[in-house]
Write a structure and sequence with these properties.
With 218 residues, the chain is an alpha+beta fold. The chain has nine helices and eight strands. Strand 4 (67-72) and strand 5 form a beta hairpin. Helix 5 (93-113) crosses helix 6 and helix 5 packs across helix 7. The longest helix is centred in the middle third of the chain and has 21 residues, at 93-113.
Length: 218
């Protein structure tokens, strides 16, 4: 059935299909809108619209390879996930903690300001991590850069200008942050933080909270 429907596409559509399949395999997420940094406006993403029109064809293709394609029209996110655990990207502890705080910032600002785009700087993110106690000291510039680069690869954040590690670098938190980390995982991290704080008070020690060394996007 897939081959029959694929053959009905024009040559240009077939090439577009192959290109977008590779984009999804590389980046996991596809967004309905993109922010244009030149005129500061949201614009429709033609790749998302193409998948939306040919959703069944993409679903059939990925199903053969053990992947699940899902579309969330409310947030304008198309996501790809593997049914096999060994084909998931694992995050280190610092990236996981950063992702946790980015998710909190996104939800806080979305509820209080009702914004289409959530803007933040690297400095504001690190300050939030320190104020929440998920880290005890400012991280090395290399760690900040590597973590934000990885999150950018998976379309969780989008840089507008500057280098990732610079305090005044501005970036957008994308709605994909709601999909890469589940509500259950958020609650688990929060409980771990609470437990760690209690242990520190009882034992009089100060060190970074301990978490699993990696995390798997959903």
């Amino acid at each position: 059935m897939f081959e029959e429907n694929f053959d009905k596409l024009s040559m240009a559509e077939q090439e577009n299909f192959r290109r977008i399949v590779n984009l999804l395999l590389a980046h996991t997420y596809l967004l309905q809108d993109r922010y244009d940094t030149e005129d500061h406006m949201r614009r429709s993403n033609p790749d998302y619209l193409f998948v939306d029109r040919k959703l069944e064809l993409f679903e059939d293709y990925f199903q053969y390879s053990g992947f699940h394609l899902e579309r969330d029209s409310n947030y304008g996110v198309i996501s790809l996930s593997s049914t096999y655990d060994y084909n998931r990207q694992k995050f280190d502890k610092f990236t996981t903690l950063m992702l946790y705080v980015i998710r909190l910032i996104y939800e806080e600002q979305r509820e209080s300001l009702s914004l289409s785009e959530i803007f933040i700087t690297t400095g504001e993110l690190i300050h939030k991590m320190l104020s929440l106690g998920v880290i005890r000291r400012k991280p090395a510039a290399r760690d900040i850069r590597d973590a934000l680069r990885k999150l950018s690869k998976f379309r969780i954040v989008e840089r507008l200008e500057g280098s990732w590690e610079e305090a005044d670098t501005k970036f957008i938190i994308l709605p994909t942050v709601l999909f890469i980390i589940t509500n259950e995982r958020i609650s688990s991290i929060f409980e771990d933080l609470e437990t760690q704080d209690l242990d520190e008070e009882d034992n009089g020690i100060e060190e970074e909270p301990q978490f699993e060394e990696d995390m798997e996007p959903v």
